């Protein structure tokens, strides 16, 4: 498990507060999706979690062990801020369990995929060269050509293959699907799923596009202006929320339904009404049937709709967040 | 885990940057063994043909070795500096890219290990190929010519140590610059500034002294106090430091080692504390930004004032300083921050810097401490000397008067010794170290009772000296130094004056006594006064006389460690000279080759050797 405890980070002499007292937990063995707009602090959080950037305050614990060893008493929860530039002491054992993939290509463009694999193998003792070669060959990449000849999507794919081949426990992917076409995206999801079945593997993925993460993540966290607004299990979030499409015979029936149900949102498209409400599916459908609809059916709730419900319950206007 | 990762990464790093080794091996081969082979081959031929004696050949082999691979190998020196910079840039330029920093600072290696690994990889990549080329140049080529000696080996070992230390100094200082800046370009600039901080300070100090305190005589070889890897390397190559008091050559090693160690420690510390998020920033550590900005602004203000201040009054100088400060601060922001968005927030620093520069200049202008006009009290003086010299088209000629009675006689022309100085300094243009024609410089030196010697120099027009000058100018020696041929005088006191004609390989040697030298000199003076070189049209015969002084019969043998070669172009119209030489058994054959352009002016090239105290 990864525990982020009251992490704060500012830049530019304190003028830009990227992370504000952020706390979050990420369970092992599940795909965690980090959603937020540009500038929400996702990349900064990843860098803090990977040990690249030292937080001003707080710590990151991996299965109870602190990544930043010079922050005293982290395990007791006593966090003290340190000045920026203070000597950085980290637990290298933990760093060996982490692989961080930023959103842009991070190695010299003159290197070939094989060169990159050799470089990764130096720092990740469990790096599987054969796995990397198999993935690259499956996707048709020439491992002997310099990466500068690859497209953005291909470079992203190579980076993901390298990350997967390290066989680290935690893989942080900033904007995982950015630049990948639909086919490659789907294939990547399958590859990730295979990895999770095969070993103790926890991918943490960020995106500003909810649709990308919707059918991939088990747990999602919503970030905004350096804070986590909510962090929920996706299924749990959708469990008590249902979307129903129906056609009623008159407007008065709709009004009654809205009074009887815990409605999150209502949209009308011509005569069809689309309603999201809290409660069990049976309860909601029972109430609707009482109004003798022309037809009524449940449809899956999207992640965006689920977030709307949750954020509005917490008092945020979702449209202002995205 | 750390040592295992260190060696694995070292191996991978060397593999990725191996092209550096190939480059150094190839370049080193060209500038060391290959060039040495051709040069030594030429010398060997001269020995075989009897032109060089065996002893001369050996001396030449040593000279060639020193200049190609040894302690005087300028190309190797330059290459060691370039290799250091290359290793630093390829090792740490990634610090300017956030994505690369994300990789290197997320993998399981601590910063100290990574820094030392890069240094070790650079060392192997650069030093090993250099040593291979050096070994070929030291052991193969000289041995092939039968020229290998213990002197060559000693010089070679000294060179190896010195060049490796130089490589390290350049490597660590450029790395320090890259670590302190978040961009490669500005990092290189910072590294270069760090390498040149010594000479920069000394140059500015010299400019201030010459501009505002012209009477104060700077120590000879002031530039030799410019301690920096660049000047030490340069000094070693040109022998500058060997001749100057500031940094004896023997200390150059220690200085370079000190720089290498300082660069390593500072670079490692800076890297350990460097925040990862600074990739792409101009200056990484905010406190260094303040320090560098203040230094840049003060320097810019001072330099502009020193260049343009000239005759501007105090108010004018303040305006110039303000302009310099403003321009320097703008330049700093544009170079290190790629824009002026911080400019409004740094106005306080700029203002303070301007005020500091202005205060410094005004202090110099008004000289409240009286440094420029300071003179020792008469009661403190044990003895005094006056040296009067003139800088004109023919060089600097001077005469010293050290006889105390004579000095006192000069000084005593006035009621008070200080009147001499006062009168001279009133008329002096102390800001002008190189006066126009008809100006003379008067150098006073006082040996004080406390053992110190103090000098003051003044530039004074002849008219101001008037009678005072006539006493000195009447000195025959000074008058005769009008003609550069008079540098024959340098031969006085030596055992013999040797003349060789080496033009077109036709070399004859003859020995002249001091009296002969003086006669020949006078003949050449008279000939040169009669015929201007530009009017020479008869080119049937022309040759070069090479004059050198030796303590032995063999002009090529440098046993004393001190020698001069002076080249005089003697034209067919120099009848008296040619007649004198013929009378003394030195008949020179007519040779072709020199045309009007070659002989457009009479010239005397002085090639000085070591002064024997290396």
Strand content of chain B: 5-15%
Q: What is the spatial order of strands in the main beta sheet of chain A?
A: 6-7-8-3-9-10
Shape estimate of chain B: flat
Number of helices of chain A: 12
Number of helices of chain B: 22
Fold blueprint:
The complex is a heterodimer of chains A (322) and B (614).
Chain A: E1 2-11, E2 16-26, E3 32-36, H1 42-50, E4 57-62, E5 65-66, H2 92-95, E6 98-101, H3 113-123, H4 129-138, H5 152-165, E7 170-173, H6 182-198, E8 202-207, H7 210-214, E9 219-224, E10 227-233, H8 234-239, E11 241-247, H9 251-260, E12 262-269, E13 272-278, H10 281-290, E14 295-299, H11 303-313, H12 318-321
Parallel strand pairs in A: 3-8, 3-9, 6-7, 7-8
Antiparallel strand pairs in A: 1-2, 1-4, 4-5, 9-10, 11-13, 11-14, 12-13
Chain B: H1 2-16, H2 18-48, H3 54-68, H4 74-92, H5 98-104, H6 111-144, H7 150-180, H8 184-195, H9 197-212, H10 229-238, H11 240-243, H12 249-273, H13 286-308, H14 314-337, H15 347-366, E1 381-392, E2 395-401, H16 404-411, H17 417-427, E3 439-448, E4 453-461, H18 462-465, H19 467-473, H20 476-480, E5 497-501, E6 508-512, H21 514-530, E7 543-549, E8 564-570, H22 575-583, E9 604-608
Antiparallel strand pairs in B: 1-2, 1-3, 3-4, 5-6, 5-7, 7-8, 8-9
Helix pairs in contact in B: 1-6, 2-3, 2-4, 2-6, 4-6, 4-7, 4-10, 6-7, 7-8, 7-12, 9-13, 10-12, 13-14, 13-15, 14-15, 21-22
